[in-house]
């Protein structure tokens, strides 16, 4: 009897909690990221001082004001890409030729592959994407406050603060990409590697400047031990290749491009796809720890012999 009473009490407390939570939340999506302003301004200084000082001097406080004014004091479903125009204008810098990398469905992989603009410069490695990467934000009508409780999702309204921002940023990034353009797609993604509706399809491809682009290189990389749902010349990748060719681009496509595959191998050192040398059969090379020590010793030995040989030939 006592335990029944306690259970009922517990259930009603849980019910009341979720009820009050629902009351405070206007939207289905997560609310504004805590400390948004500090993160934004800190990232901006990090970018111009450490990550990519080549972009030159920027006023990070002014950038924040321009960004904030795009969505503050407005209904969170009434934000248009052009509301971020001033922010983009202030944050803009050129995207180096041959460095553009477009992607879908593999954000974290892209992050390690571009290596903070050192190797490639995806949108998130340009200042105007870098400051907002992974963040959520929205304001509210008739208030200068941010909504930390909830923000509208894409399903609730298309013209929300975050999606309109990325639309504007994607358009700008595509317009200023030049030379050899790279596209990294996930061959294990559900529904196909190339989403026929998505940022790349809807805002980036239509804004590429044909006369500035020499070639489009597509890489379709499957997850290690993941399904091979899509490949060059098949399914949605074929749709993409055909679309780009019809637009007059020189297009190449490579499945499981090695440099990217090897990044994935960091998490699967024992997988047969992750063995560097093709001369030894996988079974023999299975890296148990003592064997790994063996390879390392062999490597050291070979380096030492090479060194001695070079030294000898100098004298
Ligand atoms: C971009 O790549 C093309 C083709 O590989 C090359 O001819 C050109 O010099 C490269 N441009 C830059 C700025 O690296
Ligand atoms: C590729 O897509 C699958 C399915 O959505 C996902 O589980 C996986 O993490 C993605 N791979 C990468 C490298 O992001
Ligand atoms: C905001 O203020 C305007 C004008 O003062 C008013 O018409 C509108 O109903 C208000 N909106 C909300 C959500 O309170």
Report on the architecture of this protein.
It is a single chain. The protein has 315 residues and is of the alpha/beta class. Helix 2 crosses helix 3 (60-69) and helix 3 (60-69) packs antiparallel against helix 4 (85-91). The termini are far apart. Mean pLDDT is 87; it is low at 13-22, 284-302 and 311-315. It has a single domain, classed as NAD(P)-binding Rossmann-like Domain (Rossmann fold), CATH 3.40.50.720. The strands form 2 sheets. A 5-stranded parallel β-sheet has the order 3-2-5-6-7, sandwiched between helices. It has a two-stranded antiparallel sheet with strand order 1-4. The chain has helices spanning 2-24, 36-51, 60-69, 85-91, 107-114, 127-130, 161-175, 199-204, 235-246, 258-265, 282-285, 289-314; strands at 29-30, 100-104, 121-122, 150-151, 179-186, 213-221, 251-255. The longest helix is centred in the last third of the chain and has 26 residues, at 289-314. One 2-acetamido-2-deoxy-beta-D-glucopyranose binds at residues 105-106, 108-109, 186, 188-190, 223. One 2-acetamido-2-deoxy-beta-D-glucopyranose (NAG) binds at residues 105-106, 108-109, 186, 188-190, 223. Keywords: Disulfide bond, Hydrolase, NAD, Signal, Transferase.
